From TrEMBL:
Region of interest called Disordered, as start-end residue ranges on this chain: 367-386
Species this protein is from: Dyella lipolytica
InterPro entries linked to this entry: ATPase_NBD (IPR043129), Extracell_DNA_Util/SecSys_Comp (IPR052534), PilN (IPR007813)
Name of this chain's protein: PilN domain-containing protein
Keywords in alphabetical order: Membrane, Transmembrane, Transmembrane helix
Residue stretches spanning the membrane: 221-241
A Pfam family: PilN
Residue ranges with Low complexity bias: 373-386
Secretion signal, residue range per the UniProt entry: none
Length: 386
């Protein structure tokens, strides 16, 4: 194990614990089992990959092997057999298990192991093995160099801010002899554990440096398949995006064609409105506007005889400008109050007396009375009265 692996090992162990503690492994196992059950029987064994743990026990000079989760055991063999015979017996016991998936665990008897339950802070969850080495002197009569040990987190409730853990330790003297015998027989194991019924307890007393290194030849195939799946997914996404872009371009072209047709229709409608409006423009102008001659006649009858006008203007918006001289200019506002053609009469600027004529010079601003605007106002007031 190199230094880089040792540096990353806490992070890797933390990620493994987080993965195992999440509901995803159970869900994926259930989902995979349901999908595998739909396959033909011949294919189900091919897709049933994964680690298969076989438990190896030594009792009264006999070796017993059984698959984890199964009650039945294989025929035992004596540890007095030579290495080739023991390997043959082991191969017979694990027949049907793929060698790449086979994992062997040496199960120790319960009376050969010391177990202690601990309450630890939650921060210790990421360094359980180091905490186990620290707690060894306090919880057991052994030192760390005298035992094989492991510390596992226990399921179930715990006090707030604490986790329940179990320290499992076995004297090296009781384990080394079995490890040495298996090593001489050419049998490599992956873990040293205890049997909890017909399954493993879930600890590994074997130090990491003594664990067997597995080289999985299917990893390259799995990585290739994963890369191919990612490429296919990217291709599908790219094809979907391309199709959407083509559909969008077709819709934009259709909208542009419809917009051009709408513009042509709008231009034709405008030409029709202009031609129809021009025909009645003069008639409407004549009926809606007030003749200037009528305004002059009304103004002539209302102003007194001692008043004359020097300038009279009417613009297109109906504004009237009146400039002239009068013996009493202030009375002109009252004179124009009753006019039906002129409204809003008001002086602009200051009234000044002309020394040459001894009359008051004035400039008055007014508006033409528009009968068309008076009708909506009258109708609205009548509706409000109702």
């Amino acid at each position: 194990m190199n230094s880089a692996t040792q540096t990353l090992r806490p992070q890797i162990d933390r990620a493994r614990r987080a993965w195992r503690g999440s509901p995803l492994p159970g869900f994926l196992a259930w989902w995979g089992g349901e999908l595998r059950a739909l396959l033909p029987v011949r294919w189900q064994a091919f897709f049933s990959g994964g680690n298969v743990w076989c438990l190896l026990r030594h009792e009264e000079g006999q070796w017993h092997v059984r698959r984890s989760g199964q009650v039945s055991t294989s025929p035992p063999w004596s540890d007095a057999l030579d290495a080739s015979a023991q390997q043959a017996m082991l191969s017979t016991a694990v027949a049907g298990v793929d060698r790449q998936d086979l994992r062997l665990a040496l199960c120790l008897p319960h009376d050969a192991v010391l177990r202690r339950r601990l309450l630890l802070p939650e921060a210790a969850r990421d360094n359980l093995r180091q905490i186990g080495a620290f707690e060894m002197d306090r919880q057991t009569p052994f030192r760390t160099d005298q035992v094989y040990y492991d510390l596992r987190e226990l399921p179930g409730p715990a006090p707030a801010g604490r986790i329940a853990a179990e320290l499992v330790a076995a004297p090296r003297s009781a384990v080394d002899a079995k490890l040495e015998h298996l090593r001489n027989a050419g049998i490599a194991i992956d873990a040293v554990d205890l049997c909890d019924g017909d399954v493993r307890l879930g600890v590994n007393l074997l130090p990491p440096e003594m664990a067997r290194v597995h080289r999985d030849p299917r990893r390259r195939l799995n990585l290739g398949l994963a890369a191919a799946a990612v490429c296919l997914l990217l291709f599908c996404l790219g094809q979907w995006l391309h199709n959407r872009q083509e559909a969008l371009a077709a819709m934009q072209a259709q909208v542009e064609d419809m917009r051009g047709d709408a513009q042509k229709i709008g231009e034709l409608r405008k030409q029709l409105e202009d031609s129809s409006g021009a025909a009645g423009f003069l008639a409407r102008r004549k009926t809606e506007s007030i003749a200037v001659v009528d305004v002059l006649q009304d103004l002539t009858t209302r102003i007194p005889d001692d008043t004359w006008l020097e300038r009279f203007t009417v613009d297109s918006s109906g504004r009237i400008g009146i400039q002239g001289q009068s013996a009493k200019a202030a009375s002109l506002i009252d004179a124009l109050q009753g006019s039906k053609l002129i409204t809003g009469a008001n002086f602009q600027g200051v009234i000044q007396r002309d020394p040459a004529t001894n009359k008051e010079r004035f400039f008055m601003d007014a508006e033409l009375h528009n009968p068309t605007s008076a009708k909506p106002a009258a109708s609205s007031s009548a509706g409000a009265a109702r």
